[in-house]
Amino acid sequence: MADIDKTTKENGFFMKDLLKLFKIFFKIGMFAFGGGYAILPLLKAELVEKRRLVREEELLDYFSIGQCTPGIIAINVATFIGYSQKGTKGAVAATLGMVVPPFILIVMIASVFQAFMNNQYVIYAFAGIKVCVVALIANVLVDLLKKNVRNIQSIFILCLALISVFVVGLSAASVVVVSALIALSIGEVKRKLKR
Amino acid sequence: MIYLQLFVEFFKIGMLAIGGGLATVPFLYELSEKYGWFSIGDLTNMIVVAESTPGPIGVNMATFAGFGVAGILGSCGATFGLILPSVIIIVLIAKLMNKYSCNIRVRDILEGMRPAVVALILYAGVQIGKDVMLTSFDVLFFAILFILMRVWKKGPIFYICLSAVVGIFFGMH
Known about the structure:
The structure holds 2 protein chains of 2 kinds.
Chain A: H1 4-9, H2 14-30, H3 40-50, H4 56-68, E1 71-72, H5 73-111, H6 113-118, H7 120-148, H8 152-168, H9 172-194
Helix pairs in contact in A: 2-5, 4-5, 4-9, 8-9
Chain B: H1 2-16, E1 18-19, H2 25-35, H3 40-52, H4 57-100, H5 104-132, H6 136-151, H7 156-170
């Protein structure tokens, strides 16, 4: 597969596309309540369903890798998506896009912190939004389960992962790494059996 | 210079904090002990704001902490320091992945990780749910929202705004 950075250099409308990427992630950044996996519904709606820039499986892949690498998962995912669209410059555009709205908001809030935290409307609104975040995650989960957990291997890994994280209390990164190893071994065994 | 110090310290946190945004908190405790930039009470307040406002929690923490220490430039230094390791490492990994994406073993791994990520999302949802849904009204609101989302595909932003309005209207807390 060609290096994205080399192929995108040739495109004349590069700057416009970077700006578009920035704007998309700016919008996502503004509504990214709940951090981490909570941005998945936003990314799915905007990038997978509305603009068809990314496939749902790719999104999950970015989350898996982003979970295991250093750094904040939401940032990792934004960087990944940005890179997949427009190379290194895209990675920067997407990441900055997502970071700028919260940045501005926090700076504003930090200056008037007490007033903000004690404002009744703010408290009420946030209480509503928090419940919404849970509903959004539940909604996305239904679709994800339908599409990504269809064969025996994935059901097995799903159950194993659920037990690891709910019962055993394994860290998220460990769960991802172990599932990768399991899938790798199953793949190897399947191939050996075919011969 | 304080801006450079902020940048370096948050760069280190960006490298070490693996996983969710609250993974930055232990490092922030250390920072408050080492430099006295903010107190534990401040830190707790920051967590509340960072959790309630849009944006990844870790990034919000960096912005908030940086601002408290050295104003806007401080926030810039801290935030930039925090996200830079992510960008560098992920771009490197993405380049590698491009090269090996056709490799069947890589495909096996990626496919295998997907159900695990779904499990993690479920876990995240349950944890947030336990924290957030405290009254029967919350649960009812959740159920109504969930049903609406399945039936009326209006996108997350619509529902977030709707919930903010509902929250205000019903005085949720």
